[in-house]
Amino acid sequence: MAATELISALLLFLLICSSSISSSEKTRRPEPCKRLVLYFHDIVYNGKNAQNATSAIVASPAWVGRARGFYLYDRKDFFSAWFGFSFVFNSTRLDGTINFAGADDIMKTTRDLSVVGGTGDFFMTRGIATLMTDAFEDDRYFRLRVDVKLYECY
């Protein structure tokens, strides 16, 4: 009887030791399977700037797509927004969409949005998009640098 209790106690001790050793090891973060850097810009028309600012393209950038969706300003005491949009690629190299959703605390230097899916070349993708304000002019114009890291690619 005492022998079985000793064996049971020894097995329990070994089980606890092995679980604590395995949990103390550092877990490796996966590397992104695809990484993109995009620039989003928006021009807000308030009646004083009625001309179409994008009619004459300056510096002829390589347009790869268009963002479709919305952003809502959700606070009055400081600038904060909620984004929900799809980036639709219209280039010959990439085809499909990437879907973004999440809160954007505009006053922070960098902030993250969730990549919640996609179509075409980005079918069922998941990842993180890190936003950084690249340019800002009052309430009329802003440009965001978006570093997209995809961790599930099919």
TrEMBL record:
InterPro entries: Allene_oxi_cyc_Dirigent (IPR044859), Dirigent (IPR004265)
Endpoints of the signal sequence: 1-24
Annotated Gene Ontology cellular component terms: apoplast
Localization: Secreted, Extracellular space, Apoplast
Origin species: Salix brachista
Designated name of the protein: Dirigent protein
Keyword Signal tagged: yes
Pfam families listed in its UniProt record: Dirigent
Function: Dirigent proteins impart stereoselectivity on the phenoxy radical-coupling reaction, yielding optically active lignans from two molecules of coniferyl alcohol in the biosynthesis of lignans, flavonolignans, and alkaloids and thus plays a central role in plant secondary metabolism.
